[in-house]
Amino acid sequence: MTMMGLTGRFEGKTAVVTGAGGGIGSAIARRLAAEGAHVYVADANEAAAKEVADSIAGDGGSAEPLVFDLLESAASAAAVQQIIGDRGRLDVLVNNAGVNRRGDLLSLTEDDWKLSFAVNVDSLFHLCRAALPHMIEAGGGAIVNTASQWGLYPAPAHIAYNVSKAAVVAFTQNLARDYAPHKVRVNAVAPGEVHTPMLEAGLARNGRTVADLDALVPFGRIGKPEEIAALVAFLASDEAPYICGSVIEITGAQAVA
Ligand code: NAD
């Protein structure tokens, strides 16, 4: 039985979602669990990871927290080892954790540049290197990366974020090209503005409101985490068997406004 009457597309599968203590990541974790996956709720924020895993379990899903800092490269390999040791398989890897540091080239600090790449890009290098051999051995798997519309169409004064998300797009395309022969499907989502703690932090910095952002979107409002989660779940599922190397924009038409 799955939660919320959704289909069991991930019945018997194991998934790990990074940044799953946050807005979009927690929605992805809930969605995959609701469709039958056992989900590792990965986050550096222990309290948030536990809360999300507990809440999924409370709804009848299968989940557990996996607390580690993506800045520690060895921790990614250890996390994958733990998953394989416990479950014997890793079917779905969602690289969703991210940080958003504001600034143009002259105002940004070097530390913020390095942090943006460490969390938004290097973490994909480490986690994918750890997970890929197991997916290849199993005959396939699915990796979904959270990029951003800003990685495709740069927003002003966010050079570290924009360039790191452009790197996520390129990383996705390269990995897909190299591992499609092994039936490892690698795709990315490129969301527009989505109502999450990261977005709230940005609004607090620049004095704008959600209504201000809603007005910029042709669809009339910014996105909801659940809407991104539905797309990630589709891309990770067997309903998307031939989608590989794609970057799907999900912006309420903001990207084309
Ligand atoms: P969020 O801040 O709510 O969640 C991010 C999570 O990542 C947090 O729980 C945080 O603890 C975790 N994290 C950060 N650094 C980490 C580290 N070093 N190790 C382990 N975990 C770490 O943000 P969100 O809005 O849910 O964003 C999720 C993803 O979606 C990010 O990659 C973000 O860039 C992307 N995105 C967000 C929006 C938006 O408008 N919110 C738009 C496009 C793309």
Give structural notes:
The chain is α/β, with parallel strands linked by helices and 257 residues long. The chain has a single domain (14-250), classed as 3-Layer(aba) Sandwich (Rossmann fold), CATH 3.40.50.720. Helices cover 46% and strands 15% of the residues. The protein is built from eight helices and seven strands; from the N terminus they run E-H-E-H-E-H-E-H-E-H-E-H-H-H-E. The protein has a seven-stranded parallel sheet, with helices on both faces. The chain is globular. The N and C termini lie far apart (42 Å). The model has no long low-confidence stretch (mean pLDDT 96). Nicotinamide-adenine-dinucleotide is lined by residues 19, 21-25, 43-45, 48, 69-71, 96-100, 119, 146, 148, 191, 193-194, 196-199. The site of nicotinamide-adenine-dinucleotide (NAD) has 28 residues, from helix 1 and helix 6.
Précis, in short:
The protein has 257 residues and is of the alpha/beta class. It contains eight helices and seven strands; from the N terminus they run βαβαβαβαβαβαααβ. It has a seven-stranded parallel β-sheet with strand order 3-2-1-4-5-6-7, sandwiched between helices.
